[in-house]
Amino acid sequence: MGKLAVLASGSGSNFQAICEALTPGPHVVVGLLCDQPDAQVLNRAKALNVPSALVPYDGSTDRSRQVAERRMELILRKWRPDIIALAGFMRVLSPAFVGGFSRRIVNIHPSLLPNYRGLNAIRRSYEANEAMVGITVHFVDHGVDTGEIIRQEALARREGETLTELETRMHELEHRTYPEVIQSLLGESDGQSGEDGAV
Ligand code: GAR
């Protein structure tokens, strides 16, 4: 049995897709960490009976991020995840935090990286009239959307497609792809969280 923790900030549709794909097991979602008090993902966690913890932070200073990340580390130490999945977690994690979970934090980004790193990737690729768009699942490193790529899936833009229609197709693709990658990683890392208190 592999254990997954999810970090999310917003709607949580990927979180829900992951939880549903992992049910009934053998892998388990041990908890959701969220940084936004009003995020819909918190309601989804409740409805899905997944433990959740809210760690709000303004992130405007290194100090505030350090304090929040320390709290997150303590929570994760209790949950002992094998893999940590960022699912719309709109924060940049510090090198110290990422270094503590080497090759165990993954992220999904709605572009064919290295194109369109950062915010509003779908809108920017749409407005640039890219013929091919897509999604990337990657390990998290010290940069923004720069870590080693695990999997990419592309979509061809359709003639006359609106931004909303494209967003819907991109999210559907995310909901199919991310759980698959996570299941595979959980299978590989099964039991690595150990019993020694290391996360
Ligand atoms: C997803 O499209 C995800 O790829 C994106 O945020 C959305 C979250 O949706 N993540 C990023 O842009 C990260 N740079 P959700 O809250 O419904 O899962």
Q: Could you give the topology of this structure?
A:
Blueprint lengths: L2 E6 L4 H10 L5 E7 L5 H8 L4 E3 L7 H18 L3 E4 L8 H5 L5 E5 L11 H7 L4 E8 L9 E8 L6 H27 L10
Parallel strand pairs: 1-2, 1-4, 2-3, 4-5
Antiparallel strand pairs: 5-6, 6-7
The structure holds glycinamide ribonucleotide (GAR).
The site of glycinamide ribonucleotide (GAR) has 15 residues, from α1, β5 and α6.
Mean pLDDT: 94
CATH superfamily: Formyl transferase, N-terminal domain
Looking at the overall shape, the CATH architecture is: 3-Layer(aba) Sandwich
Number of helices: 6
Give me the Rg, rounded: 16 Å
List segments where confidence is low: pLDDT < 50 over at least 5 consecutive residues. 194-199
CATH topology (level 3) name: Rossmann fold
Which bin fits the share of residues in helices? 25-40%
The rough form would be described as globular
SS-based class: alpha/beta
Total beta strands? 7
Biggest sheet architecture = 7 strands, mixed
**How many separate domains?**
1
Please report the first level of CATH classification, the CATH class.
Answer: Alpha Beta
The small molecules bound here are: glycinamide ribonucleotide
Largest sheet strand order = 3-2-1-4-5-6-7
Series of H and E elements: EHEHEHEHEHEEH
What is the terminal separation in angstroms? 15 Å
Describe what this molecule looks like in 3D:
This protein is of the alpha/beta class and 199 residues long. Helices cover 38% and strands 21% of the residues. It contains six helices and seven strands. The protein has helices spanning 13-22, 40-47, 62-79, 95-99, 121-127, 163-189; strands at 3-8, 28-34, 52-54, 83-86, 105-109, 132-139, 149-156. A seven-stranded mixed sheet has the order 3-2-1-4-5-6-7, sandwiched between helices. Strand 1 (3-8), helix 1 (13-22) and strand 2 (28-34) form a beta-alpha-beta unit. The chain is globular. Residues 194-199 have low confidence and may be disordered. The site of glycinamide ribonucleotide (GAR) has 15 residues, from helix 1, strand 5 and helix 6.
